[in-house]
Amino acid sequence: MFAQSTDPNELAPLLAEAAWQRLRSLALSFAKLENFVPLMPGAFVPPKSDADKSKSATAAEDSRTLAREFLLTNLSVVFSSEQTQVLLLMAAYPEDSPASLAEKIGISEMLLRERLAALQQAAMVERNYETGQYTPTPAGRAVQQFLQTMIKLMAGKIEQELPEIFKTR
Known about the structure:
Elements: H1 11-33, H2 55-78, H3 81-92, H4 98-105, H5 109-121, E1 125-127, E2 134-136, H6 138-167
Antiparallel strand pairs: 1-2
């Protein structure tokens, strides 16, 4: 189904890389903007909470806090029901245009493109600007496989255990 198989064990590093790409993009944008509008202290890194901590320990803690916040932000975009629906549909119909995918979901093409833009910002899909096609990144493919595996496992549970629940009533 996919052009390139991704090991499910690679999901964490791929999602971390996707979050890093988003943070990197924002940092580069802010670095350019800083020439015109100075950033307030703590705009990227949270302000230090304890003045007694060593500088290196605080920097490491700040990095972990920032990493956690960006991972959670990216994951909230990627694993929302609307975005997972788009990723799963892209896996099922990899050659379809955004207009065709929108029709299959039953939403406007404009709304689908907004969802694709959010996935692109989260580094889950990339856009070929010449053709207008969107394709999953390695992180996007790993998430697609992860979602498909979860759906398959859940379907198996439903098929096995749900009839037993109704038998006992």
